């Protein structure tokens, strides 16, 4: 009997060879003037094309969306041309790749915006750190978005989705997770608006559904995924309250109205057992609620990945760090080989080291 992780799966009209998903990971290699995907990135993604699906690193939907150094964008024609090389290389190796669409909101810094303040639902400082061209700096109090600006951001997601399809991606993932802009809208501790985008659960969730509706005007909804992190607490300035989990219950229930490619959920990133409002078992809670294909993520091993699929709590498992040091991760799982360790010092450094120089199993054995 094959391992559950290695069984094929169909996401609507898209067939995946296995259920080992490469999680989106910021690697900061687009170290050039226009944040354009480069040849290093072409090699990196092609090396990992045996994943059932690659979800690209976060790609900013506009200049306003930038919040980390050397991260690639999806808003200029130069970026689209760079991504075309990436998707062509992945497809040549038989792989599938989605682009993750990203706006960091208040996690950005004036250094990225000619001294202008980052934007957010409300003017609340996350009291965290932003990774700027000059290194880590303390975040600032962002500027609250106006309603016309929110409508423009929705259009920026739509334009980025169209660019991603023009660049040859198989689909897109809406990054509404990990304390970034869309997530900042959902949470009552980061969104204290009193207009149509604040107050009630429905209002705080509104922007996500506007983004989905806009994106489906330019591409098939069957090729759109959504990423959520319901129990994020104490990271990126996010704190939970009694409405946090009910908000995600509402969002995930409503996502059943769309024939999405998948829902991508994260288990808690840290120990939330002492947080009265937190849900400790995300897959267990949301598998009965969400009717479509479910990816689960956060610190999974091969053994736990197989177990969560076998238990019927998820359909696929996304692996992050293991894919950094093990470009052929599904093959290593197939042969039950020991995994190579990733070098944390090169996660975000420019250049080939710690990026495209990890050997495949065949190379390592040779």
SSE layout and pairing:
Blueprint: E1 9-11, E2 14-16, E3 20-22, H1 39-47, E4 53-60, H2 77-92, E5 97-102, E6 119-120, E7 129-132, E8 135-138, E9 143-144, H3 147-166, E10 171-175, H4 181-186, H5 201-215, E11 224-228, H6 244-255, E12 262-266, H7 282-286, E13 294-297, H8 302-310, E14 316-319, H9 321-325, H10 329-334, H11 361-365
Parallel strand pairs: 3-4, 3-14, 4-5, 5-10, 6-9, 10-11, 11-12, 12-13, 13-14
Antiparallel strand pairs: 1-2, 7-8
Taken as a percent bin, the fraction of beta residues is 15-25%
Q: In the CATH scheme, what's the topology name?
A: TIM Barrel
Q: Find the count of extended strands (DSSP E, 2+ residues).
A: 14
Helix/strand/pairing class, anyone? alpha/beta
Instruction: Give the name of the CATH architecture.
Output: Alpha-Beta Barrel
Q: Which CATH top level class fits?
A: Alpha Beta
Radius of gyration from CA coordinates: 19 Å
Provide the succession of SSEs. Answer: EEEHEHEEEEEHEHHEHEHEHEHHH
Q: What would CATH call the homologous superfamily?
A: Aldolase class I
Identify the strand order in the major beta sheet. Answer: 3-4-5-10-11-12-13-14
How many alpha or pi helices? 11
Shape: globular
Tally of distinct domains? 1
**Distance between the first and last residues' Cα:** 29 Å
Described by strand count, sense and barrel closure, the largest sheet is: 8 strands, parallel, barrel
Task: Enumerate the spans where pLDDT stays under 50 for 5 or more consecutive residues.
Answer: none
Name the average pLDDT: 97
Helix coverage percent: 25-40%
Domain NADH:flavin oxidoreductase/NADH oxidase N-terminal: 5-339
Protein name: Alkene reductase
């Amino acid at each position: 009997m094959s391992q559950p992780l290695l069984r094929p799966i169909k996401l609507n009209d898209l067939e995946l060879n296995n259920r080992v998903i490469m999680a989106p990971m910021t690697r900061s290699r687009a170290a050039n003037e226009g944040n354009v995907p480069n040849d290093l990135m072409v090699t990196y993604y092609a090396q990992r094309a045996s994943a059932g699906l690659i979800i690209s690193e976060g790609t900013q939907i506009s200049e306003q969306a930038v919040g980390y150094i050397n991260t690639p964008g999806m808003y200029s024609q130069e970026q689209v041309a760079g991504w075309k090389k990436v998707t062509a290389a992945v497809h040549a190796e038989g792989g599938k790749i989605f682009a993750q669409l990203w706006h960091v909101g208040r996690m950005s810094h004036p250094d990225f915006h000619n001294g202008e303040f980052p934007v957010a639902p409300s003017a609340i400082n996350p009291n965290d750190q932003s990774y700027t061209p000059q290194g880590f700096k303390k975040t600032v109090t962002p500027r609250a978005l106006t309603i016309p600006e929110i409508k423009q951001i929705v259009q920026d997601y739509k334009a980025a989705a169209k660019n991603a399809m023009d660049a040859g991606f198989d689909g897109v993932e809406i990054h509404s997770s990990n304390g970034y802009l869309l997530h900042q809208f959902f949470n009552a501790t980061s969104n204290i608006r009193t207009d149509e985008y604040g107050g009630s659960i429905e209002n705080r969730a509104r922007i996500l559904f506007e983004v989905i509706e806009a994106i489906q005007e330019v591409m098939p909804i069957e090729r759109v995924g959504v990423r959520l992190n319901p129990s994020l607490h104490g990271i990126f300035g996010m704190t939970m309250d009694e409405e946090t989990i009910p908000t995600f219950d509402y969002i995930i229930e409503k996502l059943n109205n769309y024939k999405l490619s998948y829902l991508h959920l994260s288990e808690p990133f840290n120990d939330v057992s002492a947080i009265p409002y937190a849900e400790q078992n995300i897959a267990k809670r949301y598998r009965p609620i969400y009717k479509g294909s479910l990816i689960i993520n956060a610190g999974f091993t091969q053994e736990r990945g197989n177990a969560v699929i076998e238990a019927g709590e998820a359909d696929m498992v996304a692996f992050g760090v293991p894919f950094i040091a093990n470009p052929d991760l599904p093959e290593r799982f197939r042969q039950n080989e020991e995994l190579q360790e990733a070098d944390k010092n090169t996660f975000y450094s420019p250049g080939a080291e710690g990026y495209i120089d990890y050997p495949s199993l065949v190379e390592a054995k040779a």
